[in-house]
Amino acid sequence: MSSIIKAGGNDAQLLSEIAKPTFIESHGHSAKPEDINIYVTEKCSRDFFKEELSDPKNIYHFIYHGNKVAGYSKIIFDTPYANAQENHFTKLERIYLLREFYGLKLGQELMQYNIDLSKRNYQTGIWLFVWVENPRAINFYNRNGFAIIGSYDFKISENHSNPNYQMLLKF
Fold first, then answer.
1. SS3 state at 168
2. What is the pLDDT of residue 83?
3. With left for phi above 0 and alpha for psi between -120 and 50, is residue 91 left, alpha or beta?
4. Phi and psi, residue 145, nearest 5°
5. Which pLDDT does position 43 carry in this prediction?
6. Which residue ranges in the chain fall short of pLDDT 70?
7. Do 91 and 128 form a contact (C-beta atoms < 8 A)?
8. What's the rounded Cα separation, in Å, for the pair 51 and 12?
9. What is the pLDDT of residues 3-29, one digit of tens each?
10. DSSP symbol at 100
11. Domains of the chain, with CATH numbers?
């Protein structure tokens, strides 16, 4: 049985604990180990998430399988993408699942939850960035109706960026 729970101000440590392994599992081979280490040290730390959770625009959710956290997501409402004519778009900034929970449809459940939440908050679509060498994620987004609309270089460290697609789902 699964459940989705909104992260609160006291969840910085749990976010850090799930963010590091999920990022390494999906992107750990995308750059030199030292560059990946720089990224997870800066963007997956307890202090980083403490600051993130203090900003009400950042909306984090955990998905649990039984009583174990399986993954998490982050969305931001009213974040237009480049060249957007409308302002009411959700940015899906993070959606990660621990590899041990792949195949249980938990990623789909969390994605649908974010889509439904965005619709309830009068958003007109969702956009995101995805690493071009992550076919599993690209296929997942395609199955959910997202289309590639552009590209972006995602900065891992001062020395390394990964090419990403920008994808969009309009409601």
1. strand
2. 76
3. beta
4. 95, 5
5. 97
6. none
7. yes
8. 8
9. 999 999 999 999 999 999 999 999 999
10. G
11. 2-170 (3.40.630.30)
Q: How many angstroms separate the CA atoms of 23 and 17, rounded?
A: 11
What pTM value is reported for the model? 0.95
- CA gap 153, 62 in Å, rounded: 27
Q: What is the pLDDT of residue 63?
A: 98
Helix 135-143 to helix 106-120 angle (10° resolution) is 50
Which DSSP string corresponds to 65-126? ETTEEEEEEEEESS-PPTT-S-S-EEEEEEEEE-GGGTTSSHHHHHHHHHHHHHHHTT--EE
Cα–Cα distance measured from residue 72 to residue 60, given in angstroms and rounded to the nearest whole number: 7
User: What per-residue confidence (pLDDT) applies to 85?
Assistant: 80
Is there a contact between 123 and 89 (Cβ–Cβ < 8 Å)?
A: yes
String of DSSP letters for 64-75: EETTEEEEEEEE
The reported pLDDT for the residue numbered 86 is 81
Q: Strand, coil or helix: what is 118?
A: helix
- For 64, half-sphere exposure in the C-beta direction (CA atoms, 13 angstrom radius) is 10
24 Cβ neighbours under 8 A, 6+ residues apart: 36, 40
Which residues, other chains included, contact 134 with Cβ-Cβ below 8 Å and sequence gap of 6+? Answer: 26, 27
- Please count the helices (runs of H) and the strands (runs of E) in the chain: 5, 7
Q: Which amino acid is at 111?
A: M
pLDDT of residue 168: 97
